[in-house]
Amino acid sequence: MSRRLNFGAGRPRFWVLNGESGFKPGHRNFGSRSISSDEENARPETAGERNDIAPGIDTAPRASLPGTIRLRPPAADDGAAVHRLIAACPPLDTNSLYCNLLQCSHFGGTCVLAERGGEVVGWISGYRPPQDPRQLFVWQVAVHPSARGIGLGGRMLAWLIERPDAADAAVLTTTITEANSASWGLFRGLARSLGAEVQSRPLFVRERHFDGAHDTEHLVSIGPLDAKNRAASTRNVAARAVEAVRAIKEEA
Questions:
Q1: Closest Cα to residue 68, out of 49, 88, 84?
Q2: Strand ranges of the sheet holding 119-127, from the earlier edge strand across to the other edge
Q3: How many CA atoms lie within 13 A of 133 on its CB side?
Q4: Which of 15, 30, 96, 99 has the fewest CB within 10 Å, making it most exposed?
Q5: pLDDT tens digits, residue range 27-67?
Q6: What local confidence, expressed as pLDDT, does residue 24 receive?
Q7: Which residues in the chain show pLDDT less than 50?
Q8: Amino acid 240: pLDDT
Q9: Is 140 helix (H, G, I), strand (E, B) or coil?
């Protein structure tokens, strides 16, 4: 049985990226249900039309921007969309649809879904390893090509470590192959935002564990994830997202 997510009092239920203000917390509680396409209309909302955007956000329409992106916990109904997203993001390994359904339901508290206009454009899967619950292990990070270049991967990571199910994690871990420069850059950027150390070592070795069919996966550890570092990370990643959005406007 999948458990219901328990959001702490006063915690933002989701985050929005809109205009030059970057990511800001929203306050409307969607719980674990999906946001329908009718609720995510194409044009940017104004603060007077909806109550799910925090006060003070610049919500003026900007045709050159890619639209509002919301971060929220996944639900079982999102499994198929997550499966399609990962398939559209090579060289990420695709898992079975059933695996993605379990991630969205049983492990929804340590996963992140990003959507724009009712379409899933970003995804992080993660869990707390039973043998070491101090860890928050990030399994995969996927960003649709149409949503790249605005710091979405880093923003999802920053949101993840603030989630109630990850709030007491002392260290974030993941595995990365040596050639995956994008992932190295993403997680090293998170470590810089946190002011945390990065350690790595081979975990699953090509010949020993993959029978020569897959490159060696290196275990990457980032920590400590204390409250001070988490707050700094949220500010730093949001600032980089703002700069990315401005760069898109300038190029347009």
A1: 49
A2: 23-26, 14-17, 69-72, 112-116, 119-127, 135-143, 171-177, 217-223, 197-204
A3: 4
A4: 96
A5: 333 232 222 222 233 323 322 222 222 222 222 222 224 57
A6: 44
A7: 1-16, 18-65, 241, 244-245, 247-250
A8: 52
A9: strand
CB 14 within 8 A of CB 68: no
Judge whether 47 lies within some domain: no
**Do the domain assignments include residue 45?**
no
Torsion over CA of 56, 59, 65 and 70, rounded to 10 degrees?
70
Question: Which residue intervals of 7-151 are DSSP H helices?
Answer: 79-87, 97-105
Which CATH number does the domain housing residue 171 bear? Answer: 3.40.630.30
Which domain, by its residues, includes 182?
71-251
Residue 100 in any domain: the answer is yes
